[in-house]
Amino acid sequence: MALKKYYFHKILNGEFKGDDMFKLVSNFFALSILLITGLMVYELVKGSWLSIQRFGPWFIVGTVWDPVFTQTFSTLPLILGTLTTSLIALAIGVPISIGVGLLLSEYAPKRFAWLVSFLVELLAAIPSVIYGLWGIFILIPFLRHNAYPFIQSALGFLPLFSGPIYGGGVLTAGIVLAIMIIPIVSSVSRDVFTAVPRSQREAVISLGATKWETCKIVMSYARSGIIGAIILGLGRAIGETMAVTMVIGNKFKILPSSLFDAWYTMAAIIANEFTEATYDLYVSALIEVGLVLLMVSLIVNILARLLIWRMMKFVRGVVQE
Amino acid sequence: MNRRIIIVLLVAITIVAGIFLAYQQFTTPQRTITLNGAGATFPFPLIDKWVSEYSKIKPNIIINYQSIGSGGGIRQHMEKTVYFAASDAPLALEQASKAPDTLHVPFTIGGVVIIYNLPGITKGLNFSGEVIVDIFIGRITRWNDPRLQELNAGVNLPNENIIVVHRSDGSGTTFVFTDYLSEVSVEWKTKVGKGTVVNWPIGLGGKGNEGVAGLVSQTPYSIGYVEFTYAKKNNIPWGYVKNAAGEFVEPSLESFRAAAAAAAVNLPKGDAVWADVSIIRNVVHNKQAIGAYPITSFSYFLVYKDLKVLPDMDEEMARGLVEFLWWTIHEGQNYSAELDYVPLPSNVVTHNEETLKMVVFDGKQLLKG
Fold first, then answer.
1. Which one is the CATH code of B33-109+298-365: 3.40.190.10, 3.40.50.2000, 3.30.450.20, 3.40.50.300?
2. Which of B70, B92, B218 lies at the smallest CB-CB distance from A137?
3. pLDDT tens track for B141-181
4. Residue A272 with chain B: CB contacts under 8 Å
5. Residue A76 phi/psi, 5° resolution?
6. Where are the domains of chain B?
7. pTM
8. Residue A291 per-residue DSSP state
9. What are the tens digits of pLDDT across the range A130-161?
10. Which CATH number applies to B111-283?
11. A73 in Cβ contact with A92 (< 8 Å)
């Protein structure tokens, strides 16, 4: 109210300037983000209401997906599948991306760095269905013949790496996802490494640090930025649909027998079944899967924020001492 | 003198042209009619061909067909947001109750073929319904199982595990295939059932025909199923399937047509309940169906009997729609074979003629019978 009066007053006195206009417009755009998110949640809840009423919280902890006979739906295996493939992607993709980031900011000559970052960003422009097809026709045969038997002979005593090898499966999906998150994670980490002040590097070098020690200091300085980059990558991995669907094997079960076995993710089941979902409860359950996916991303993001926040506090504390 | 003639000529031409244009404008008011349809992806190439051919005959009728999947087509039909839908499965009882007075018009025929990847074996393998069920349920697990070997005397089947590949996305192909398995085996019917998506007891899921074919071609000792047209276009070798007459039948336009002709005898009236209609059911146990490939199915157009129920529909549009459908089951069938679809047998065409004659607008008949 006060705000309205303020602008009204300004307009009356002829003091309403471009600055005020700009403020109003940018406020509107900022609010529209909130509005769109709110609308999305509202629509998802509305669309899944039938399923929410029918299954309640069991939808999240149950392990049955049966559209044919009992028409019951629940998502625990899908949630686990989504998180597992995303974590595998991080485990493989993040070290590579940080390496790329360090190379680009600390080691590579300018022209070479430009070329590499151009190529890495090109990876981000490839449509995910292309990654999926590449996964089926190139990566899967390679992994089945060359990589997986080798891994199995070395680590087969672990249940994670035993069992039959199909080629497609959890690990393959993780690898494809890892390649897909490398562009975003590496370009963001390059940016945060470059943003580390020159004085930091000079101080460390003047104390007689080696190149590797300098890199360590740069990385610890940029820690929160790296976590931010990882979160962006995780977001991409959790929501990725097409490429995962094409290589994961799409099997609804509580746990796969090994990392070589088929599994399922939330995004994949929506993509697979939405077009042919023929009755209301089925459609509603698939929309609720979308809602759960949104919630899982939200929770993961909040956890990451908390992590960064705690770390910042820790770093600040050290500096203050 | 010369100049005057030219002026007179120009004026004359202008007047004549003006009259001509006005004449065209007022005497043949060509109203453009847009007919929206949606549904199955399987017959999309055929429908697309029909749409472009029909626009040459009737330029004022624009047909807009979106291939969003049978399920989506049925949903839009029930919500009355399209004028016609195409589906690989007839309306189930529950769906039919939400879309009363729906007519089913089978307009083309498709088949599902068994594909496999056995290094060194190029000959088409023989399968029987029971063996296919046991492979996909996980009872026959090795290629040199005696029951498979018995069907393929003289073929040196490898002592390897069978890797089963199925469709993971909801699809009419899965519906047809599981319909067949349910018809063959009571155990399948009660444990897994039939549907566009089912809970497969074993195996890997691939997305789309290309996903299944890709996995099978990349995985030695695997077996899967895809739609006939897809396998044919991509030269994927397929298996022969035993029918009730005891023949091992190769999937082909002729063997699908034979199956459809055998089933057409028992088709219900166009406005009756079609939920249980299936070529498979008519062929699997029918010893008279000579030369029929059992895993065969219709694709259906779904239209309301009285088109008045659709919003923004008028008599002229309704007539345009029925005439188009009439054309597809007659002249339209000539385009089937070149696109690897099966032309309808004549008894199905006759049946459809009766069905289309039932279509009315506000009680008024649209086709002269």
1. 3.40.190.10
2. B218
3. 999 999 999 999 889 999 999 999 999 988 889 999 999 99
4. 168-170, 197, 205, 207
5. -55, -50
6. 33-109+298-365, 111-283
7. 0.82
8. H
9. 999 999 999 999 999 899 999 999 998 888 89
10. 3.40.190.10
11. no
